[in-house]
Amino acid sequence: MTPHRLTRDQARRLVVRAQLLDADRPGDVVEVAEQLGYIKIDPTATIAPCEHTVLWSRIGWSYEPGQLRKAVEQDRLLFEFDGTFRPMSLLPLMLPGMRSWPQRESSRQWLEANARFRADVLARLRAEGPLLAAEIPDTAQVSRAPDGWSGSNQVPHMLDFLLRQGEVAITGREGRHRRWDLAERVYPRDLPEYDDAEATRLLEARRLQAAGIARPHRYWSGVGKDTGEPAAVEGSSVTFRVDPDALASLEADGGGRVAFLNPYDSLLFDRRRLEELFEFTYVLEQFKPKSQRRYGFFAHPILLGDRFVGMLDAEVDRDREVLRINAIHEFLPFEPEETDMVRAEITELAQWLGVAVTGMP
User: How many Cβ atoms are within 10 Å of 34's Cβ, its own excluded?
Assistant: First the structure.
C-alpha cells in the first residue's frame, strides 16, 4: 500500500501518546504495562530505580511502589522476565519462542552437559520452592566462565536458562534478590495457545502498539517489515511502520506535558528513531569517565510536549532527605512558561519521593 505521509510533529505525537507521556495519564500500573509491553528493571537509583521512575513519569503522584509489587506478586497480572516486568497477556505470545529456546549451540551444549544439574534444580524447587538462588546447591557438571556480571556459582545461570524455557518463574523479590518457583505454580493455567507464526505476528503488533511508529528492526523495535502500515516521515529516509489505530486517533491528541525520563526508559531505546523523529542524539553517560560527561552520571532527558528540551541532573540524598538539583541543562533557553513547568514537575517529583528540593536554579 502507499505509505502514509507524516510530518515530524505528527510522528512525535504518535510516539508520545503510545508511550503514555501525553496529557492524558494512565490510571494504574497494569494499564502502563499493557500499553508499553514491558517495564525495565534497573537498580541505578540516583532518583529512584528505573521501574518506579518509568511508572511515576506516566501515572504521576498517585503511583506508589507497593502497587507494582502487588500486581506482580499477589494479583499475578504482571510477571518478571529478562530484567523487565511484563503484562501476563504477553506470556501466551512468548511461550512458543520459549519452548524452542535456546537457539545458540553453546547454550544447548551447556544444558545437555548439565542435565543432572537441571534435574536437581527443578527437584529442589518442586520440593521446597519458592527459593532464592542462594538456597539452591550448585551441582553443575560443567561451568560457564564468569562474565563480569555473575560469579562462579552456576545456579543463577541455570535458573535464567530455565526461565527462558518456561520451566521456572520468578514469584517475587526480597530486596533485589529474585525468588524462584516452578512456572506451573506461578503462571496461570488457562492461557490461550498459539502456533509460532501467530504468536510472532501478535507480538510484533503489540510492539508496534507500544511504539506508535517504529522502524522495522528485529532488535531495536521487534517490529516486522509487514507489521502495521508503511509510513514516510518528512525529512527522514527511513521507511517506518505505523500503528493504524494510533494513526486513526491522532486528532484526538489532548496535548503534552513535562516528563523526566529514566535513562533506561523504553522511549529512549531506539537511538536512531530518536534522531530521525525528535532530532535528539542521546548518549548515556553512566559508563563514561567523569571528565568526559557533559550532562551528568545519570541525567534524565526532559520531554516537554513532543520535544526533548534539556537534561535533568539530580540525585536523592536520603541522609539529608533532599532531592539535589545539580543542573538543569537547557538545549535552548527556556521560555518563562517552560521554566515554570519544569520547576513544577521537579516539585511534584520531590513530593512523590517524600523529600525537599535543594539547588533549584
Answer: 20
